Amino acid sequence: MSDQPERKQINFTIVPDEQAGEPRIYANFCAIAHTPFDFTLTFCEVMPLSEKEVREAESQHIVRAPVRARVVVPVQFLPNLVAALQEHMRVFSDTYSNVGWTKGPVH
């Protein structure tokens, strides 16, 4: 017999707590980095550039965008995240394919 205690499996659903009062954050750009242990998703908001900012971007090849959120997730979390995004994208495409939505870049 094993000295390990018997593990009991419990199935449950996690539901976001909307009463936490966190504001909704808009982002239209996501930079992704990783280590052997986790992935970091940095969400930014890229606004239309002024003529001056366009000139600076042309010379420096950099556009600074404010970070709205940075989320670090373990590597084990990624397959389920990717699958969920693909399923939601499939449903979205099936639902809104007749309204002129394209798969091109937002900006």
Q: Helix- and strand-based class?
A: alpha+beta
* Rough outline: extended
Question: For the residues shown, what is the average pLDDT?
Answer: 87
Binned strand content:
15-25%
What is the number of domains? Answer: 1
Report the major sheet.
3 strands, antiparallel
Kindly state the number of beta strands: 3
N-C termini distance = 62 Å
Helix content percent band:
25-40%
Radius of gyration from CA coordinates:
20 Å
> Which oligomeric form is depicted?
single chain
What series of H and E elements makes up the topology? EEHEH
- In what order do the strands lie side by side in the largest sheet? 1-2-3
Low-pLDDT windows of residues: none
Helix count from the secondary structure assignment: 2
Structural notes for this entry:
This protein is of the alpha+beta class and 107 residues long. The chain has one domain. It is 27% helix and 20% strand. The chain contains two helices and three strands, in the order E-E-H-E-H. The chain has a three-stranded antiparallel β-sheet, with no helix packed on it. Strand 1 (29-34) and strand 2 form a beta hairpin. The model has no long low-confidence stretch (mean pLDDT 87).
